[in-house]
Amino acid sequence: MQTYSVILECPVSESFRCVMAANSVDLDIKSKSKHEISIIADLDSPWSVGLIIGASGSGKTTLAKNIFGAECFDFEIDESLPVIEQFPEIMSYEDCQRALMGVGLTQVPCWIRPIYTLSNGQKSRAVAALQMASQSQFVVDEWTSVVDRTVAKSMSHCLQKHARKIEGQICAVSCHYDVLDWLNPDWVIDCNKGEYTDRRSLWQDHKRSEKLEFEIMQIGSESWKYFSKYHYLSSKVPGGICKFYGLFHKGDQIGFQCFANYVPHSDKSKKMQMHFNRTVIHPDYVGLGLGIKLINLTSQIMHESGYDVRAKFSSVPVAQALKKSKEWHLRSVQRFTAPGNGITARKSGFRNAVKTYSYAYRPDKSIAQSSAPAG
User: Cα–chain-centroid distance for residue 193?
Assistant: First the structure.
């Protein structure tokens, strides 16, 4: 245990008006212009996530500098460059990819755009990924202060998960108490109360008391124009027969899901095949597992509506998620060795040699189809 103390003082004006104001309520100007914090805390025992919390002016930032050093907030980025270009040169592309996905910045378009074009939430995630890649211990000031509170919770959940995965040390400094349940820190210093709380024995068994509610509704294709910039495929939805669903939070659409008929429905005695595609969760809400929940729930709706629900895609995270599901059954794995038609015919050839996964949605085990994956 160690004692950390800070004293905050501001200049005292003795002007006529200031003295009159103070005398009007019998105010001791000097005592009210001085704020002291003294905290006894154990920051030497192993920890991954810490939280310094309190209102503006409570001494959070000064205390953080006292604990971690005066330069703990000194971290420079070039906002004119994409985040993917600013990782240490020693890191492989795969390392950069894991770092970005670890903090919930999963959309590739966000990786390759200048940082200044990102939203506040996306930028915060990008900077956190860069800091974690460069520093084994770092402090982030005003964590989630400028984002929507649901976004703040999603960001906090991602931050703590990634910090523990990479065995780093992250201390968030925030004026918002609502992130505590989602950040689930190993220790908390509350500057408002002048208290230290050790939570190391609590975080593994921690169950959040707050539940976020989302709603799925069938929609038209109009909102795709707002979500297409976050998806790696065409900015257009597939042609032919399609069904569209939106994910909503407090009335705002934050997710998009499409199902399309890729295979001509010539045999009317069989169910029409509908493949899910264009799954997008707005980057600010990534990290809560909403993408796979949107896929599963809308696939269930489509299945109950009489469709043969399928999937063919190249996303490894989605493949890993479906692999864990009893309802989804892997039919094949293919690897393209040369550009073909459609999206594989791009002149750049960057879709060349892409591995694709084919799945079938079979919630009824009695009709589950088994096949050995190829490739």
Answer: 30
